């Protein structure tokens, strides 16, 4: 379990993480979401003891991670897949980690095979693609068979097969009762990966809930209608408190009333319907709307 209590990190006048509190529990994949610059990577670094908080605390199973000897047996992490010695082979890189954490060397080939790098184990990492480096980083996180795992943007550079493999891996790790914490700025991917979401913006907590709760609270529902009598139907629906966005003479988008109620009203007033379809906005759109005020760098900003 990871517990964050009023965690704060300031760099001079800039507050990167602002009194952040949440808990990441075992047995689930928890997505850690926010726009670029929201404070996700800084939070992960404080969990791992790589940065010291200005205030507050971060613990893993009740203990600050920095105080744990042989850390890879307790927490596995992938923060930056490119932060490796390019002149070493994958096997040599993992063997060094294994020795420093007193992990049996036999574990090295096990995890290399698990991530699909068994045949490339003797190659220099400098010749690896980004996707291969991501797989190597995941192998390093798995090396100590830890109960807690953290991943920062683990899908970067992976091909579609690799993405499917990572999703399955995270699900298996969670089903084994491990704590799995995955940072990303892409809601579309977390929609297929996470059970719970922690969303932050400008270092502050925005949401901490299950994926289903996030969807129910933030996704917007509308109803598409097509009818040769759209003007008359729009008048009826507006009289019931709905909003109707007329896009052409026969087609409109209705918000504020469910499809079954719209159908009942059309029947009551003798209006013909050619189409009546409920539409739900994507979670990506809901996420973008929720974090719109927390985006640090907007495309098209004046320079």
From TrEMBL:
<feature type="domain" description="ABC transporter">
    <location>
        <begin position="2"/>
        <end position="227"/>
    </location>
</feature>
<dbReference type="InterPro" id="IPR027417">
    <property type="entry name" value="P-loop_NTPase"/>
</dbReference>
<keyword id="KW-0813">Transport</keyword>
<dbReference type="GO" id="GO:0005524">
    <property type="term" value="F:ATP binding"/>
</dbReference>
<dbReference type="Pfam" id="PF00005">
    <property type="entry name" value="ABC_tran"/>
</dbReference>
<dbReference type="GO" id="GO:0016887">
    <property type="term" value="F:ATP hydrolysis activity"/>
</dbReference>
<dbReference type="InterPro" id="IPR003593">
    <property type="entry name" value="AAA+_ATPase"/>
</dbReference>
<keyword id="KW-0547">Nucleotide-binding</keyword>
<comment type="similarity">
    <text>Belongs to the ABC transporter superfamily.</text>
</comment>
<keyword id="KW-0067">ATP-binding</keyword>
<dbReference type="InterPro" id="IPR017871">
    <property type="entry name" value="ABC_transporter-like_CS"/>
</dbReference>
<protein>
    <submittedName>
        <fullName>ABC transporter</fullName>
    </submittedName>
</protein>
<dbReference type="InterPro" id="IPR003439">
    <property type="entry name" value="ABC_transporter-like_ATP-bd"/>
</dbReference>
């Amino acid at each position: 379990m990871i517990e964050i209590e009023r965690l704060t990190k300031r760099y001079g006048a800039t507050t990167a993480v602002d009194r952040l509190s949440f808990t990441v529990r075992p047995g689930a994949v928890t997505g850690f979401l926010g726009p670029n610059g929201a404070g996700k990577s800084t939070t992960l670094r404080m969990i791992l003891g790589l940065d010291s908080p200005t205030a507050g605390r971060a613990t893993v199973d009740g203990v600050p991670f920095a105080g744990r000897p042989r850390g890879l047996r307790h927490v596995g992490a992938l923060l930056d897949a490119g932060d490796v010695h390019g002149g070493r082979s994958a096997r040599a890189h993992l063997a060094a980690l294994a020795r420093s954490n007193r992990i049996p060397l036999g574990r090295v080939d096990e995890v290399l095979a698990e991530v699909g790098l068994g045949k490339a184990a003797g190659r220099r990492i400098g010749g690896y693609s980004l996707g291969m480096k991501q797989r190597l980083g995941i192998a390093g996180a798995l090396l100590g068979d830890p109960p807690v795992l953290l991943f920062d943007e683990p899908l970067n550079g992976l091909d579609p097969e690799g993405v499917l493999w990572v999703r399955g891996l995270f699900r298996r790790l969670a089903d084994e009762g491990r704590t799995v914490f995955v940072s990303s700025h892409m809601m579309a991917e977390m929609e297929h990966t996470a059970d719970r979401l922690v969303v932050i913006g400008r270092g502050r907590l925005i949401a901490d809930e299950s994926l289903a709760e996030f969807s129910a609270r933030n996704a917007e529902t509308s109803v598409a209608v097509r009818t040769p009598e759209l003007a008359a139907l729009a008048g009826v629906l507006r009289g019931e408190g709905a909003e109707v966005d007329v896009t052409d003479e026969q087609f409109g988008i209705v918000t504020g009333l469910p499809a079954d109620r719209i159908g009942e009203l059309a029947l009551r007033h003798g209006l013909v319907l050619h189409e009546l379809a409920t539409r739900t906005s994507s979670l990506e759109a809901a996420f973008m709307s929720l974090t719109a005020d927390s985006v640090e760098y907007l495309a098209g900003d004046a320079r």
